[in-house]
Amino acid sequence: xxxxxEMIRQATQDLYSWALRKVPDDTKDALRAAMEAETNETARxxxxxxxxxxxxxxxxxxxxxxxxxxxxxFVKIGTKAPVTGDLKKSIRExxxxxxxxxxxxxxxxxxxxxxxxxxxHGKDMPIVSYDLVSDAEYVEIVCSPKALGSGxxxxxxxxxxxxxxxxxxxxxxxxxxxxxxxxxxVIMGIGIGGTFDHCASLAKKQTLRAIGTVNENPLLAAMEExxxxxxxxxxxxxxxxxxxxxxxxxHCDFSSGHGFTPVAVAFNxxxxxxTRVRLWGDGRIERLE
Length: 289
Fold this sequence. Notes:
Radius of gyration: 19 Å
Number of domains: 2
Number of helices: 8
Order of helices and strands: HHHEHEEEEHEHEHHEEEE
Number of strands: 11
Distance between the termini: 25 Å
Strand order of the largest sheet: 4-1-5-10-11
Low-confidence stretches: none
Structural class: alpha+beta
C-alpha cells in the first residue's frame, strides 16, 4: 500500500477545518493555569471568556474566530515513506475542495499584495514548506493558519556578532511594539542565526512547539524563562485588559551561521491554531493534534 493523493487531499481539508474549530489541549490547559495565577480581575474574566469561547466552538462545531487566516502547511516527508501521490498538487486540491464545502464558509482573506484583490486563491496558495525525516515511514502534515493579528506583528532584524543581551532586548522591543494587537496571550516563536529565510522558519516552527515542553539547550531554556517573565511584566495582558498574562510561552531555537545574525520573532494568538496528522502506507490518517 502507499500514501495516495486521496489521503493527502483529505488530510489537507481536515487539518484546516480542525484548526479553525478547536484550540489545542495544551493551550487550553495553559489558559486555565494563567487564569488561576492571574491577579488582575479584568484579565481573569477575559481568560475565562476565551476558555468559554474555545469550549463553545468545539461543542457547537463552529469557528473560534471569524478570521480564518490563510492556509499554511508544514510537511515532513519520511525518507522511507511509500508516497505515490503528488504532494504539492494534492495539498492544493484539498484546500480548493475545502473552500467549496466548508460550513460555515470562509471569508475572503487571501490577498494579492500588488492589487489588494481578495479571494480564496492566489499565487503560492496554500503556503507549504517541506522537510525530510530520516528513516521515517510516514508523511506528517501540520496546519497552522495565519491570521492578521498575529501575522502582522512578526519581525526580524539582522545583527553582527550580537550578545545575548542585545538579542533579548530586541525581542522585548518587538513585544512592546506589538502591544496587545496580536490577540494575547500569545505564543512567541524565536529564531536566532542561520540565514534570513532559515531564521524566519525557525521562529515560525517554534510557535508550533507544545506549551510546557522544556528546551533541550540550557542556554535557550534559561532565555525562554527570562523572556516570558519580561514579556508578562509589560502589563498588556489578555486582549489588552492588563495583568500578567501577555505570553503563554516563549519558545526559542537557533542555527549556526555567519557573523551576521538574524533574529526573528513570530507570534500565534491565544487560539494557537495547530493541527497535525501522520499519513501511513497502510491507509491510516493518524491525528496527533
